[in-house]
Amino acid sequence: MRIRIFAAGLFALLLGVGAGAADVTPPPPPQDELVPPPPPPPDKQGRKERGFGPFVWRAFSRLTEQQRLEMLKLQSSDPEQFRQKMRELGEALRNEERARFAELRKAVESYRASKDEAERAELRKKITEHVREHYMERLEDNKRQLEEMKRRAKFLEGELAKREANADRVVEARVESILKGELPEPGKRPPKRKP
Predict the structure, then answer these.
(1) What is the pLDDT of residues 91-140, one digit of tens each?
(2) Calpha distance 95→97 (Å, rounded)
(3) Is residue 70 in a domain?
(4) Distance between CA 114 and CA 153 in Å, rounded?
(5) Do the beta carbons of residue 90 and residue 52 sit within 8 Å?
(6) How far apart are CA 16 and CA 156, in angstroms?
(7) In terms of Cα–Cα distance, which of 1, 3, 71, 35 is closest to 156?
(8) How far is CA 166 from the centre of its chain?
(9) Would you say residue 46 lies in a domain?
(10) 60 near 86, Cβ under 8 Å?
(11) Containing structural domain, residue 130
C-alpha cells in the first residue's frame, strides 16, 4: 500500500514539475543516468494510437544499458524510427505474454479435466512454477521501473531547485516582457529571450 501511495505521490510530483517545464527541452541525460523514453505522441487526427504503453515501458526496462543508449541516440536522431522500434519491442513482449498465458490456460483446463491425482499434482506444479516465474519477472520489472523513477525524480528535483533559485529573475523578466506588451496566452510560456 505504501508503494502505491509513494508511486502516486511521485507521479503527481512529476506531473506538477513537468507541467511547468512543458516548453523546455531537457538536456541530454548523463551517460550514467538513463531516462526512460517518452510515450509515443498521439497521431495526427488527435486520437491516441491504441498501443502497448505498459509493454513498451517494460520492454525498454529490459534492454541492456548499451541497447538503451543506442535507443536514446536514435530517439534524438530519428524520433519516428525510435517510436516504431519501441512499438515493435512492446508488441513482441505483449505477444510473448499472450502465448505464455495461453499455455497457462491449457494447463489449467487440463488440470480441471483430469481425474488422475498424479497428473493433477504434476499439472499443479507446472502451473505454480509458471505463475511464480511470471510474478518474479513482473517484480523485477517493477524494481527497474522504480529505479528509473528515482533517477528521474532526482533529475527533476535538481531542475526544481534551479527554478526556485532563479524565481526572482524569472518573475522580473516576465513582468518586464508583460509591461512591453508581450502577453503570453494562458497556459503558454513566453518565448525565450535571445542573449
Answers:
(1) 998 999 999 999 999 999 999 999 999 999 999 999 999 999 999 999 99
(2) 5
(3) yes
(4) 52
(5) yes
(6) 10
(7) 35
(8) 29
(9) no
(10) yes
(11) 51-144
